[in-house]
Write a structure and sequence with these properties.
Structural class: alpha/beta
Mean pLDDT: 88
Distance between the termini: 10 Å
Number of strands: 17
Shape: globular
Low-confidence stretches: 1-28
Order of helices and strands: HEEEEEHHHEEHEEEEEHEEEEE
Number of helices: 6
Radius of gyration: 19 Å
């Protein structure tokens, strides 16, 4: 089996392929959107350097970033580090290792369109999630989750979501975690949402909103230079815990059509590239550091998307939906791929 024809990373080459990209149809997937309430007042103001208990996150780095990939209370993998094997014909470094934690075998995507009435400004990400769920690309995750090979359809878009509100021009992780707790509690009580490993919340931030970890020195989404920390990431995934101990999984999806995060011809593909990266990593490593993570000298701390970041291809997920995004790392093929 061969990989899809590579588009190349240069924008000119991507632009030349733009005719191959089928834009999602806005009306193809309807979400019943609940009005998003304002942030709980207890989390409206955070002091620089603060951190919420149990915080752990894994970033998709912006282009050119060479710093840490994991932040917060993540396990120390150094005791398991392995020497780099020599495979001179391989472009990508090493396979992932399993650290015994949970994986996500089935889950619904719940989208939170913060500061907007729907997903239009981000290129309708629900269309990408729906196409990905029916693709062979999502089936490659079965090798990590234990689902039957070559099956798909276990990660659908929920029939509901959230929209509106205002995240302001700068938002911190604790504020997003507080919102995740609020809406997850509501969804469990009113919509029967399966939390823990059964629902993944995606927080889409509008253009002009920067995002930082509570200790902003660890990293921010900061393309305009206005945030108090370095521009380190284009997105990340994390979890927060309800009072009863239930985990709530979420990803943070800032606006991607900006310098450092855009490497495709459309906003829909820019969004899909980072969103797909975080979906794959949430599924295979939902509690960062305890699932499938790199433990070799050459990929220490990496997850399934990291070794393939910014290596862009056109992926035809369904006959009517194609996106220019990265591949994910396949332990079976020892390379980046979209094949099960």
């Amino acid at each position: 089996m061969t990989r899809l024809h590579r588009i190349g990373r240069a924008f000119a080459a991507l632009s030349a392929s733009a005719a191959m990209v089928v834009l999602p149809v806005a009306s193809a997937l309807a979400e019943d959107l609940q009005p998003l309430p304002n942030l709980p007042s207890a989390h409206a103001h955070l002091k620089p350097g603060s951190a919420r208990p149990g915080f752990a996150a894994k970033i998709m780095p912006r282009q050119g970033y060479r710093g840490r990939l994991m932040f917060g209370h993540v396990p120390d993998l150094s005791a398991s580090i392995k020497p780099a094997a020599t495979r001179p014909n391989d472009f990508y470094p090493q396979d992932l290792s399993y650290f015994g934690g949970p994986v996500v075998t089935a889950a619904s995507h719940v989208n939170v369109y913060w500061g907007a009435a729907n997903g239009a400004v981000w290129g309708y990400p629900a269309q990408y999630e729906n196409a990905l769920n029916h693709s062979r690309m999502i089936a490659m995750l079965n090798a990590y989750t234990g689902n039957p090979p070559a099956t798909n359809g276990t990660y659908p878009v929920a029939t509901y979501g959230w929209a509106g509100g205002s995240p302001g021009t700068l938002i911190y992780d604790s504020q997003i975690a507080a919102q995740a707790q609020f809406i997850a509690t509501y969804d469990r009580a009113n919509r029967g949402a399966a939390l823990e490993m059964g629902t993944i919340y995606h927080f889409f931030l509008p253009p002009g909103t920067d995002a930082c970890f509570d200790d902003a020195s660890q990293g921010c989404y900061n393309p305009d230079g206005a945030a108090p920390g370095p521009f380190a990431f284009c997105g990340y995934h994390s979890n927060t815990t309800l009072p009863d101990g239930t985990n709530v999984l979420y990803t943070v999806e800032p606006y991607q059509t900006v310098y450092g995060c855009s490497d495709s011809p459309t906003t829909a593909s820019d969004t899909a590239n980072v969103l797909g990266h975080e979906i794959a990593e949430t599924i295979t490593d939902p509690l960062p550091g305890y699932g499938w993570v790199g433990a070799y000298a050459t990929n220490y701390g990496s997850e399934i998307g990291d070794e393939c970041s910014w290596q862009m291809y056109t992926h035809t997920l369904t006959p009517s939906a194609s996106y220019v995004t990265q591949n994910w790392y396949s332990n079976r093929l020892h390379n980046c791929s979209d094949l099960p």
